[in-house]
């Protein structure tokens, strides 16, 4: 199947609300501007992202924030309702992610780096990798197989600071210029007020926004632009070997 034959649907499947906004929202905006259908999903609702609220109140608030962020670019938000800190690679969770893929039938998928600072992120990356390969098999889900379902283009996003858990730099296969999309990306991230307020109080500065700007600008400087997002493409057996993002936005 060629790039032109694939569904113009992109799925960012991450661990927690606000993860996509940090690492791939600029690229999602660019794809939306080209007419792609955009979905943002999280495995967990952010139930541990507070020092003051119970898990039900913070989950409600954070999923509403995630939906509001997605709505800024005409995207749809999904939550698979796992628990913060307890995302695992097991049969029930694999099934949830496979079922999501069956409902969405993405042509492009973004997820966390396989080597990240947080185990929730690493487990999500493994779950997404499994579902991206498996979801096209008719017998793996009760949800009907949509037309043009296929193994999608799969991209791993930058971990924080662009380093793996041992402090080694991640070398991207692609950087996407998001200079023109940076402020809308920031507006999406700002929707997650519960996390911004907590970290601003804890750090005494707006580190929540500044960390996003810092990493976006650092990746942009590597290609001579104001801001960029960096990705590593999964090119294993059965996955596309060409780089659709490079074809759409230029290979930096």
List the helices and strands and how they pair.
Layout: E1 9-14, H1 19-23, H2 25-33, E2 37-42, H3 55-71, E3 76-79, H4 91-104, E4 108-111, H5 119-134, E5 153-157, E6 174-177, H6 182-190, H7 193-203, H8 207-222, E7 228-234, H9 244-249
Parallel strand pairs: 1-2, 1-4, 2-3, 4-5
Antiparallel strand pairs: 5-7, 6-7
Helix pairs in contact: 4-5, 6-8
Report what the structure shows.
This protein has 252 residues and is of the alpha/beta class. The protein has 9 helices and 7 strands. The chain has helices at 19-23, 25-33, 55-71, 91-104, 119-134, 182-190, 193-203, 207-222, 244-249; strands at residues 9-14, 37-42, 76-79, 108-111, 153-157, 174-177, 228-234. A 7-stranded mixed beta sheet has the order 3-2-1-4-5-7-6, sandwiched between helices. Helix 5 (119-134) links the parallel strand 4 and strand 5 (153-157). Helix 4 crosses helix 5 and helix 6 runs antiparallel to helix 8 (207-222). The protein is globular, with a radius of gyration of 17 Å. The protein starts with 8 loop residues before the first strand and ends with a helix. The relative contact order is 0.18.
